[in-house]
Structure formats: C-alpha cells, structure tokens
Design goal:
The complex is a heterodimer. Chain A is built from nine helices and no strands. The longest helix of chain A is centred in the middle third of the chain and has 21 residues. The radius of gyration of chain A is 36 Å and the shape is elongated. About 15% of the residues of chain A have low confidence. By secondary structure, chain B is mostly helical. Chain B has one domain: Winged helix-like DNA-binding domain superfamily/Winged helix DNA-binding domain (Arc Repressor Mutant, subunit A), CATH 1.10.10.10. Chain B has a two-stranded antiparallel ribbon with strand order 1-2. In chain B, β1 and β2 form a beta hairpin. In chain B, α2 packs across α3, α3 packs across α6 and α4 crosses α7. Classes of the chains: A mainly alpha, B mainly alpha. At the A-B interface, α2, α4, α5 and α6 of A face α1, α2, α4, α5 and α7 of B.
C-alpha cells in the first residue's frame, strides 16, 4: 500500500466509510508514514471546521413556500393513480383499433347497402356492416371500470331487434344508486367520470 | 355520495402531510441551500423552487424513505442544473449589507447569535467567512458532496443517492472538495487554519 493510494482514501478513512480491512491497512500505514499522517491531520481539521459551521436561519419562514405551493399546482395525487394510468394505454389501444376499423369500413362501404328495414335475406356484407363488432357501444361506456359487463354489451341493431322487455321486470331508472355499486341508470352513464378516482388511506 | 366527495378529504390529508413536511424541514433545507448558493436571495429561491418541485412530484415520494433524502436529491439536482445554466451564482460577502424597499437594512448573512466575547466574535466571523468563501470556490459537485457530508452529516450512501451517483464518486468528490477547501484556507488564511477550530 503506497502513499498515493492511502492519501486518496484519507477522507473516507476519517469518515469511517471504508471496509474494516482497508481501515486497518491505512491505520497501519499511518503509524509508519509521517507525510500521510500530516495529510490526514490537515483534512481532519478541515472537516472539523466545516462541522462547526453554524446553522443559518432564513429571514422568511416556510409560510411563503406554502402560499406559493397553493397557487402553483393542482393537489397531488397518490402513487396508485400513476400506476393505474400506466396500464391504461392497453385499454385505449383496443378502442383506437376499433375506431380505426369502423372509420375504414365507413369510408369504403356503400351506404345504399344498409337497408332501413330488415330484409328477408341478408347479404354477408350487410351482416358484417351491422354486426355488433362494428357497432360498439359508446367509447366512454365501453371502457368504464365501473361496469366491466359493459364490455360485453352491444348497441341495438335492427337486425337483432327483439320485442321490448316487460318494463315491470326492468329496474326503475329513477332508482338512485351509488356509482361504486354495480347498477347505474343508463341516463346517467355519461355523467360518470371515465377515470375512477381511487381512494387509498394514508399509511 | 359522489367520487369527488370521497376524494376531497384525501387530498386535504395529502396537502396537510406536505405542509407538515415543509414546516419540519424548511430550516434544514434553507441551511443546505444557503451553503450551496452562498447568499440569502439565491438560497431562498432555491428552497422555494425545490419545494414547488417536490409538491409537483409528491406522488412519487416513497413514504418508506425519509423525506429529507428525497428532497435533498431534488434540491441538489436543481442547484447543479441552475449553476450550470447560469454559470457562477452571485456571492455576497458577510459584510455586505442589504436594504429592503421599506428602508430596512441588515447584513446579507443571517448568522445566529452565539453570544461569544467580542474577541471571539471577531474570530468566529473571520472563521465562518473563510469557510463560507472557501466553499464558494469549489465546483458545484464537490460543494454539494462536502456540504451534505460535513455540514449535514449524511453518509456516503445517502449522498450517492441524492447525487444519483456511485459511492466511489462520492468518496472522490468529498476528498477532493476537502482538499481544495483546505488549500484555499491555507493560502488565504494560514493563521486561521493553524488554529484549527473555534472555541
């Protein structure tokens, strides 16, 4: 162990930031080397002087920082929201793909092939045009995390029309419900935020 | 009951948590900023900007770690970035006075009253000014490392985390920083260095 190596490690030695073996090796070297011992002493004094520097008080308190913080940015959100958002693009990817397919089909399809009344015979083109896959439910309804079952629902098509159900068997639209509980009146779907705000208690 | 109604108290809790952290750590943050920038005005700006940034990214703060570790990283990164952008930050001598719009005057350095004897006071002032001056002559990376290690008492590991570098680099920066500081004091104030420490 030469002096150059030892001197490069003297601050770490002072701070006890070396391994036990290295600390011991440098101590042994210092016992025999005056030059390195003097170097160590000057560094020790420098460190000592720095440690004795008094703390400085600010003329202004933290209040002005808090005031600026209030004015500057929206309230912070929890980390869990960030994680949830990170995975959201998968859900959007499906939506974008579907939207692109619909747009492409709409642009290339002849409008006259869509009859206003159900024909007796349905051409394969018409079936595809009006299939549930190409008539998705509205975007905000499809990707709502509150109604996973909405992913399976399809818009009503004239070719798949069924007799209206007995209204007495349907749940009342006027019935109030909590968005966190499953059922929500269809008339209020558009008012439900797309992004669920996840609530997590503080640790 | 709407979602907004559920979330609102939670936001207030987060806000209160942040406020408490600002109150608790403001003084320490200011002290670091002051030793890094060398003057009151820049230190206040730096602390303010660092807390604003901390608030903006508060959702990334890992509560299992001490706030000050995370915050020091923001503060030192901000300082080094700003230093590079602006070049050397302005420095103010300990004897320089400032005056506000209200006509109030005082020294630029808010030194605490340690109540020593007049002779000790002169020595202390000389000593503090010498170290303070010496720190301003270090490069920003060395200064950050030395301030965090010797003034704040952080471990090398904590400094490495704050500076986003390896422990080996931190070891080198502290060592070279102390050596440069020692050389500066020896050159400018040889008798002060020989005295070594204050009473």
């Amino acid at each position: 162990m030469n002096c150059r190596y030892v001197q490069s490690r003297l601050s770490a030695y002072l701070d006890c930031e070396l391994s036990g073996v290295e600390q011991q090796q440098i101590r042994s070297h210092l016992e025999q080397c005056i030059e390195c011992s003097i170097e160590l002493e000057t560094l020790r004094r420098t460190k000592q002087m720095l440690r004795q520097m008094p703390s400085v008080a600010s003329r202004r308190g933290p209040e002005h920082v808090l005031l600026l913080v209030r004015q500057s940015a929206p309230a912070p959100r929890r980390a869990v929201l960030i994680r949830w958002r990170a995975t959201r693009w998968w859900q959007y990817a499906g939506g974008f793909a579907l939207a692109a397919a619909i747009a492409f089909w709409g642009a290339s399809d002849d409008k006259t092939t869509t009859p206003t009344t159900p024909p007796d015979t349905i051409s394969s083109t018409t079936v595809i045009t009006n299939s549930p896959m190409l008539n998705p439910i509205p975007y905000h309804e499809m990707f709502s995390a509150y109604r996973p079952s909405a992913l399976l629902s399809v818009r009503k098509s004239p070719y798949y029309s069924t007799p209206p159900p007995d209204s007495s068997l349907m749940p009342s639209l006027a019935q109030p419900s909590d968005p966190l509980m499953g059922y929500q009146p269809a008339s209020e779907w558009s008012s439900i935020p797309i992004e669920p705000k996840i609530v997590e208690s503080l640790r | 009951m709407t979602h907004t109604a559920v979330l609102k108290p939670m936001d207030e809790l987060i806000q209160r948590e942040f406020d408490e952290l600002v109150y608790k750590h403001y003084q320490q943050a200011y002290n670091i900023a002051y030793r890094l920038t060398g003057n009151t005005a820049d230190a206040e700006d730096l602390v303010q900007e660092a807390f604003l940034r901390a608030y903006r990214f508060f959702d990334r703060y890992d509560r299992s770690m001490p706030f000050m570790n995370w915050f020091t990283r923001i503060l030192t990164n901000l300082y080094i970035d700003e230093y590079r952008r602006r070049g050397r930050l302005r420095t103010i001598s300990i004897d320089e006075t400032y005056s506000t719009d209200d006509g109030e005057e005082g020294t630029a350095l808010d030194l605490p009253d340690l109540s020593p004897s007049p002779m000790e006071q002169v020595l202390n002032k000389e000593y503090i000014e010498a170290i303070h001056e010496g720190l301003q002559h270090l490069s920003p990376e060395f200064r950050v490392a030395v301030v965090l290690a010797d003034l704040e008492g952080n471990s090398y590991e904590e400094i490495a985390e704050a500076m986003n570098t390896s422990i080996g680099t931190v070891r080198s920066r502290i060592h070279r920083g102390r050596k440069q500081l020692r050389d500066y004091i020896q050159k400018r104030h040889p008798n002060l260095f020989e005295r070594g420490e204050m009473k």
